Structures are given as C-alpha cells and as structure tokens.
Amino acid sequence: MIDLAIVGGGPAGLSAGLYATRGGVKDVILFEKGMPGGQITTSSEIENYPGIKEVLSGIDFMQPWQEQCFRFGLKQEMVAVSKISTQDKHYLIHTDDGKVTPARSVILATGGRPKRAGIKGENEFFGKGVSTCATCDGFFYKNKEVAVLGGGDTALEEALFLTKMCSKVYLIHRRDGFRAAPVTIEHARNNPKIEFITPAVVEEIKGDGNGVNAVVLKNTQTGTIQELVVPVIFVFVGYDVNNEVLKQEDGSMLCACDSYGSVLVDLNMKTNLPGFFAAGDIRTNAPKQVVCAAGDGATAALSCIAYLDSHH
Length: 312
What we know:
Layout: E1 2-7, H1 11-22, E2 28-31, H2 58-70, E3 75-77, E4 81-87, E5 90-95, E6 100-108, E7 112-114, E8 130-131, H3 134-137, E9 145-149, H4 153-162, E10 168-172, H5 182-189, E11 194-197, E12 200-208, E13 211-219, E14 225-228, E15 233-235, E16 239-241, E17 276-278, H6 290-310
Parallel strand pairs: 1-2, 1-6, 2-3, 6-17, 8-15, 9-10, 9-15, 10-11
Antiparallel strand pairs: 4-5, 5-6, 7-16, 12-13, 13-14
Helix pairs in contact: 1-2, 1-6, 4-5
GO biological process, one term: removal of superoxide radicals
GO molecular function: thioredoxin-disulfide reductase (NADPH) activity
Family: Belongs to the class-II pyridine nucleotide-disulfide oxidoreductase family.
C-alpha cells in the first residue's frame, strides 16, 4: 500500500507531490497518463505568475516544475485513472491497465476544462484570439474593443473585469434574458463600456496568420448578419470539471460535490472523507489560476502530512 496517491499532474498535483515528498511522505505516486503540466501547457503566454518575469509559453513554464517536483522522490505512473473507490479505511486507485493500487490517502487534482461553443474557427484560433480566461489574456487587449460570448455569471463577471482595461466590450448572448445573478446583470447594464448584442449567435470566428480579426453574428429573431471587427472573443459557455473518477457503480459520487460537480472542500482542501483531499480547478469555487492551483496543492499536501502522521 502506498502512502499517497495524487491523481492529476497539473500545477496542483505537481505542487502537492513536491510538498508531500519534501515533507517526508515516503511512498507518493502521481497518476498522470501523459507528461505532467495540465491544461496550462496549451497557453501561448504566461506573464502573471509571481517571481517569473519572463513571458513564457505554458509548456516552457511547466517544464522545470517536473524536474523540481520529482527531485524529492515523487514517482509517476503514466496511466489513466478510471475510478477511485474505498475499502475499509483506505482508497483504491483503479487504472486503465486493470491494476488496482491501495493508498492510505488521496489528493485529487484532475482539474477541468472550459466548454467550447462549437463555432467555426473556434479551434483554429484558440489561443490566437479565442480565449476562455479574461484574467489571463485581457491585458493583451488593453484599450481595444473585445467580444464576450455567454449569458451566465462567469460571462458577465468577466465582461465587467474586461472593462477595466478594454475600451469596449460587446456581450453576445443567444437569448434576451441572462442566467447570471440579478445584481451582476444590473452592474453590467449600468456599465457604459458594455454593449449588449442579443438575441444573437456567433456564426463564425474569422482571422488570418496573425489571429482573430472579426466575428460574424446572426440575430436569432430577424436573421440579420453583422460583422464585429475585434481581435479577440472570450468564450464563457460553461466549465466541465474532470470528476469522472469519483463516479461509483451505483451512480453516486465518492465524496461530496456541489451542483456543478466540483468537489466540496474546506480551507485545508479536506473533503468530507478522511484522508481524501482535492486541489486546483476540481474543487468548488476555484479561481482557475495557476498560482491558486499551486497553492491548493501545497495546502492539500500539508493537510495530508498531518493526516498521515495522526493515523500511523
């Protein structure tokens, strides 16, 4: 039996591995099918991580993490986890190769992924004028006009955030009504920099070798087509957390989750199960920033060390 299984190899999982092994936990295995790094490796530019003054690509940014985190004895199993279950007072890590690894504790760091809208040009220009993170990419469009797609809390909150640096924000939604909280809608409607375009859908995202230069919109009531000349569209049509490993045979979840399927944790990253922790974008109310995920991973590892010390 291993002391700790870490499921997921992004910033949260790697930080957890670093702090756990350096903190003296002996048998720690990181389960990650591919190279560690997480979804941040798809980012073209990172310039807001404290202490890293160079602007780096996601891949270059995560590369030294792996070397550092494996220096203290963290081992990786390059295999996908299909399920986590419980037996007696420990956990079973089921992997795609048919093996089952018992573990005294688990840190879940499987992350999540923003939903794609399925628009023509969206995949082609992703990272080159199609973004799912205003905090990450808004600064690159300072004093420019930008577009935001979506009608929920995230879309409106990110649109409001973008008004701090962009000259104008076009908020596009397929319905006249919004799913966001009434107070958020009110703030958005009262912001002179936000122009609502409803009810409308994005037909196509256009661009060239330099990235996005326009989005084609269609009014769903009149059928009118219009073209917005913008260098970026921020897409906020939902977020999927990678919680499949928590699903049990009877359809229940291994630990307590919120209505979105994100894992409920306390400030110490503890779930409602002893010895089971969650960190990064898989947890409820995650800010979805690398620095926060790394902090979560460290917190979870410290909590886990305390748990293992008290359950010898």
